[in-house]
C-alpha cells in the first residue's frame, strides 16, 4: 500500500462516522435526491444569484450530471439542480460552455469544457443525438481535444433517450477532431471510454474496456472519477475483473486513490441474476470500528463501477456469505443497492 493511500484513508474515515448513507426500501437506492438542491447548498438560485432566506427553487429544477474538467485534467461528473425544461439534453450541453450559465455554479478546481461562444443545435432521433456545433467549437486547447469528446458523450448519454452521439460542425459530420486531428467514430458511446488509464497494453485488439471509479480530492472535497482500463477478451468474468481493478487501484503516478485496501478479496466469482450482481468479500471490506459496517464511499465505488456494465442494475453485497451488514446509519443492508441518482453533488 502506498503511504499516501494510508493518509487518505485516515482522513476519510473520520467524516465517515458522521455521514449518512442509504434510504432502504424494497430495492435500495444510494443517495436519493436530497430535499435541498445543489444551488441551495451554495445559497444560489438557478441562475447563480443569491437565494433569499427560506426561498427554494427545488420544485422547478432537475438533477443533471455535467462532465467537467478538474484541476488534474480528469473528466468528472458533477451533479447540479438545473432549471426544469423540456429539452434537458440541450440545456446540459449549454452548461458545458465556458462563460455560459455554468459560470456562477462552477465548483473550485473545476472548469467548463466547450470554448466560450460555442453555439449548437441538437437533434435526437432513434436514440442518437446529433450535435451540430458552430465554428467557435474549434477554439479549444489541443490538450482538451479528447476530454471534450468524452465530456459531451458522457453528459448527453446520461439521458434515457440517448444511446449514442454524432458530432458535426456547420452540418458537416466529424470523422476527426478539428485541432489535433484525433479520429472519432461516427457513433460515440460510453463504450469509447473516459479518462484512459495510461498503462502498457500488449495486444489492444484482444482487450476490451471497463470503467471503474476511483477517488480524487480537492482542499475541501472528495469526489469520484471514472477511469477506463482494458482487460483481456479471454476474461468472461467482467464483474470480477472490475473488482480486481478497484483493489489494484489506479496508476501509481496518478492523483487518484482506491478505497478498497489491498487485503480485500472476493471469496467467489460474482454471479448475475435478473440484473443483480452478487459480490462476496472477505471481512477486510468492512470498517474496522464496526465488523458489520461497509462505508458509504467504499460501497459507492463498487456500485458505480459495476453498474456501468450492461445488464447490471444493482449490487448485492455479502461478507463471508453473510448479508447481515449495516449502513453508517445502522440500518440493515439486506437488499440490492442501485446506482446513485446523484453523483458528486457535494463533499463527502
TrEMBL record:
GerMN domain span: 89-178, 239-328
Matches recorded under SMART domains: Germane (SM00909)
Protein name: GerMN domain-containing protein
Coiled coil ranges: none
Signal peptide: none
InterPro entries: GerMN
Species of origin: Fervidibacillus albus
A Pfam short name: Germane
Top-level taxon: Bacteria
Amino acid at each position: 500500500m502506498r503511504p499516501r493511500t494510508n493518509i487518505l484513508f485516515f482522513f476519510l474515515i473520520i467524516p465517515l462516522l458522521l455521514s449518512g448513507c442509504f434510504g432502504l426500501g424494497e430495492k435500495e437506492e444510494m443517495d436519493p435526491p436530497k430535499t435541498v438542491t445543489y444551488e441551495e447548498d451554495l445559497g444560489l438560485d438557478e441562475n447563480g444569484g443569491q437565494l433569499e432566506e427560506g426561498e427554494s427553487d427545488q420544485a422547478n429544477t432537475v438533477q443533471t450530471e455535467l462532465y467537467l474538467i478538474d484541476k488534474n485534467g480528469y473528466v468528472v461528473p458533477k451533479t447540479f439542480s438545473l432549471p426544469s425544461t423540456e429539452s434537458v439534453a440541450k440545456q446540459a450541453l449549454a452548461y458545458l460552455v465556458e462563460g455560459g450559465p455554468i459560470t456562477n455554479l462552477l465548483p473550485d478546481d473545476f472548469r467548463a469544457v466547450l470554448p466560450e461562444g460555442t453555439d449548437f443545435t441538437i437533434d435526437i432521433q432513434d436514440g442518437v443525438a446529433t450535435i451540430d456545433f458552430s465554428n467557435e467549437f474549434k477554439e479549444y486547447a489541443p490538450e482538451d481535444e479528447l476530454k471534450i469528446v468524452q465530456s459531451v458523450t458522457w453528459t448527453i448519454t446520461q439521458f434515457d433517450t440517448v444511446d449514442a452521439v454524432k458530432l458535426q460542425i456547420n452540418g458537416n459530420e466529424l470523422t476527426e477532431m478539428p485541432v489535433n486531428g484525433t479520429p472519432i467514430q461516427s457513433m460515440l458511446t460510453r463504450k469509447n471510454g473516459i479518462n484512459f488509464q495510461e498503462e502498457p497494453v500488449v495486444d489492444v485488439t484482444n482487450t476490451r474496456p471497463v470503467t471503474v471509479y476511483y477517488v480524487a480530492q480537492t482542499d475541501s472535497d472528495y469526489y469520484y472519477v471514472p477511469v477506463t482500463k482494458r482487460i483481456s477478451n479471454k476474461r468472461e468474468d467482467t464483474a470480477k475483473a472490475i473488482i480486481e481493478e478497484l483493489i489494484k487501484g489506479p496508476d501509481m503516478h496518478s492523483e487518484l486513490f482506491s478505497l478498497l485496501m489491498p487485503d480485500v478479496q472476493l471469496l467467489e466469482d460474482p454471479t448475475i441474476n435478473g440484473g443483480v450482481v452478487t459480490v462476496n468479500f472477505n471481512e477486510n471490506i468492512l470498517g474496522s470500528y464496526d465488523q458489520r459496517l461497509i462505508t458509504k464511499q467504499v460501497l459507492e465505488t463498487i456500485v458505480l463501477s459495476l453498474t456501468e456494465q450492461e445488464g447490471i442494475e444493482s449490487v448485492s453485497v455479502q461478507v463471508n456469505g453473510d448479508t447481515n451488514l449495516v449502513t453508517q446509519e445502522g440500518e440493515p443492508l439486506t437488499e440490492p443497492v442501485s446506482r446513485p441518482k446523484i453523483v458528486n453533488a457535494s463533499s463527502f
